[in-house]
Amino acid sequence: MSFSCGCCRILGPVLFEYDTPRIVSIKSRKVGLINRLVQLGILAYVIGWVFVWQKGYQQFDSVISSVTTKVKGVAVTNTTDHGVKIWDVADYIIPPQEETSFFVMTNLIMTLNQQQGRCPEMPEDSPECISDSNCTAGEQSPRSNGIQTGKCVPVNSSTAVHTCEVLAWCPLENDVDLSHHPALLKDAEQFTVLIKNNIRYPKFNFTKRNILPHINGSYLKQCVFNRTTDPDCPIFRLGDIVREAGEDFQEIAVEGGVMGIQIKWDCDLDQSVSKCVPQYTFRRLDNKDVQNTVAPGYNFRFAKYYKGPGEVESRTLIKAYGIRFDVMVFGKAGKFDIIPTMINIGSGLALLGVATVLCDVIVLHILKKKTFYREKKYKYVEDYDLVGNSPACETP
């Protein structure tokens, strides 16, 4: 019996009570001012931030794009090793086409007339040897230029230094330090690149390209991008790209680097389509750290093959230093849609309830007359028809 009475006392308030809101009008300037200020802040957030700044009345879509590039420019070099040489786009753009990027060679180490044969290893790539016993036939290492033959030979006739002989493309490349000399293709600073960018927002079936409708053929032949005078021109001077990124072209050209061309498409499709135009920014992407100069820049090797005298396969090995330009396209488009509009309006109305909750906390827990206000806020009503009528809980 006592267990049953305990259950009644515990479950009774849960199962057989009903709470209903009670409206209490409090004549307080302080509380009323706080209530209006909170409501005003919520309205400012919903209208100013959600609808005006974030465009909460729109549906959004991310951009899909394709990029092609075309570099133009001619450079001339005059060196003691190679004489006068003209370099055009077929010489310094390697490879001819890449996906959303292009590489411009600005410096190089060229090794001419290489043929497969036997030659001494370079001293900086292999330890010196004294006799053939220091060299192992068939041995190779990641730093080696070939496979050892097992012989110890002099590096050249004018020195007593000996290294292991290797089977390789001879003569071997002399990988010199270029950091203290100007770039060979320093004229690349004046080269230009045409960037053709087509974008699409599939959700809205909207397409556009960065060659805008007002750009004609004659304008395109003579314009170069300038943020003030020609902000819509899709032709960029390489030196201007590097300069706008806060870097020195001639300094980067020596050992190479990676630059980013950022194209931003943010379009409000509720407005005129003519206002949907690309915004260009530039920045350096590879880490430039003056405290850590290990393996700086950007370089790689490639070869040009040909048949020499007697149909012997020969090649010209080129270690190319240069600047890689990565074209990055991003952005979003928005257009009015009733669903996000109604969702954000409903969320804003729900947020207005925060003002009531905050004011209740102040009135019932902070103000000096909190006990008085609490008595007015809450009222407990008993169901007198049922008081003392439960036989299971009567006192014997």
Q: How would you describe what is shown here?
A:
- It is built from nine helices and 14 strands.
- With 396 residues, it is of the alpha+beta class.
- A hairpin with a 5-residue loop joins strand 13 and strand 14.
Largest sheet descriptor: 8 strands, mixed
Q: Considering DSSP H and I runs of 4 or more, what fraction of the residues is helical? A: 10-25%
Mean pLDDT: 87
Our measurement of the CA-to-CA distance between the termini, rounded to an integer number of angstroms, reads 11 Å
Radius of gyration: 39 Å
> Helical segment tally?
9
Rough outline: elongated
Topology, pairings included?
Blueprint: H1 2-15, H2 29-53, E1 58-62, E2 64-72, E3 75-79, E4 83-87, H3 89-92, E5 101-120, E6 147-154, E7 162-170, E8 192-201, E9 206-209, H4 217-222, E10 235-237, H5 238-244, H6 249-255, E11 257-268, E12 279-284, E13 299-307, E14 313-336, H7 338-351, H8 353-365, H9 370-377
Parallel strand pairs: 11-14
Antiparallel strand pairs: 1-14, 2-8, 3-4, 5-7, 5-14, 6-7, 8-9, 8-10, 11-12, 13-14
Helix pairs in contact: 2-7, 2-8, 8-9
